[in-house]
Amino acid sequence: MTAVATAAPTAHAPKRGDIRHNWTRQEAEALFALPFNDLLFLAQGIHRQYFDPNQVQVSTLLSIKTGACPEDCAYCPQSTRYDTGLEAEKLMEVEKVLEQARAARASGATRFCMGAAWRSPKQRDMPHVVAMVKGVRELGLESCMTLGMLTQAQAQELAEAGLDYYNHNLDTSPEFYGDIITTRTYQDRLDTLEHVRGAGMKVCSGGIVGMGEQQGDRAGLLLQLANLPQHPESVPVNMLVRVKGTPLEDEADLDPFEFIRTIAVARIMMPASHVRLSAGREEMNEQMHALAYFAGANSIFYGEKLLTTPNPRANSDMALFARLGIEPEQRHVEKAPQDPNPQFYDAAAGTRGNH
Ligand code: SAM
Ligand code: DTB
Ligand code: SF4
Fold first, then answer.
1. Which of 91, 209, 215, 89 is nearest to 147 (CA)?
2. 76 is catalytic
3. How far is ligand 3, taken at its centre, from the CA of residue 180, in Å?
4. Closest residue by Cα to residue 207 from 34, 310, 75
5. DSSP for 254-280?
6. What is the structure's pLDDT at 305?
């Protein structure tokens, strides 16, 4: 083993309870540069301090309004600017959404996420989405929505309806962002996250890898997320789904180990957050899933469709869980990430405790 390999993990290893918001770019890049085994060992060790390593949270996703989106996100099949052959649909009726939520609950999901292809919700849409949130919560499911940019007042309205999580991704580093989206700024995204926090909701925010960005951009994305005043409770890491008709349809494959590295660095920099293995799982085999769980991923989107593209079948996820001794997490009682005395999982004792 080289001197770098032995020294680096200790130098970067957060101590238990050490939730930092002052990461430097150099530190983030140094984590990415660690030998793969050192990085995974470090990530797994930290994962065990905060979570039961054999539990994975499962969320189900539903597109409540599909296609015809005015934004120009280069990866997205739902943008009206690209001919992807997707048929646009208007906002679903509340009762239809609740039917799907009941089915998701029956198949073991604990969180129901609703996504709309909007730049931001219109005021006339708000009563409908509010009714969806209330209905989903009455079913005993955690609720999550992703509807685009929110004003402070809209965030407040959703919070009052009982929305648990709001998903709004930063997508990539500030430096690479302009290559992917021109119709809204990075600051617009940060503003929405601030509105969501201001309204007291939990934040789900992450990004996409495999869009032609450099490793430094993946570090830059995680740096932005980890240096927010409070870490997102949930951090989705999407692997680009290359959809025909989008500008990124012919993007080169990302080295699968780079994807795993991104998961591991997210786990280390945001140790108390759920890191979600999100889009792109159709292209990942079981070994890759197992490595991602080992690197610290502890949440997945579950069910055969994401918003518009396919996802592995629930049965195959459950079969893999069984082979790996993983259990779906029951409703997770989140500890505030800033908690100075966080609960940790004592792997040796198989119990949770406090310092
Ligand atoms: N329209 C809203 C917005 O953009 O904020 C909400 C829905 S949007 C589809 C949610 C997220 O899905 C995007 O921010 C992006 O990270 C992810 N996404 C969309 N298309 C994707 C693709 N082809 N591959 C991977 N992730 C994708
Ligand atoms: C997130 O980060 N990934 C999900 C969810 N948040 C809304 C969406 C993935 C979409 C993949 C492309 C599609 O199915 O349209
Ligand atoms: Fe619209 Fe969201 Fe797709 Fe961007 S990611 S084009 S905002 S649906």
1. 91
2. yes
3. 11
4. 75
5. PPHHHHHHHHHHHHHHSTTSEEEE-TT
6. 74
List C-alpha distances in Å: 57 to 19, 243, 317: 21, 27, 12
Q: In order along the chain (355 residues), what is the average pLDDT of each group of 10 residues?
A: 39 63 95 96 93 90 92 95 87 93 84 94 94 92 95 95 96 97 97 96 97 97 96 96 94 96 97 94 92 96 78 82 90 41 42 41
Radius of gyration of the chain measured on its C-alpha atoms: 19
Q: What is the DSSP letter of 111?
A: E
Pairing of strands 344-346, 351-353: antiparallel
3-state DSSP assignment of residue 146: strand
Known catalytic residue at 73: yes
Closest CA to 233 of 261, 203, 263, 198: 203
Tell me, what's the pLDDT at 83? 85
- CB distance 164 to 143 below 8 Å: yes
CB atoms within 10 A of CB 187: 9
**Main-chain phi, psi angles of 59, to 5 degrees:** -120, 145
Question: Pairing mode, if any, of strands 111-116 and 55-65?
Answer: parallel
pTM over 0.85: yes
Residues with CB under 6 A from ligand 1: 69, 75-76, 115, 117-118, 146, 148, 168-169, 171, 208, 238, 240-241, 243, 279, 307
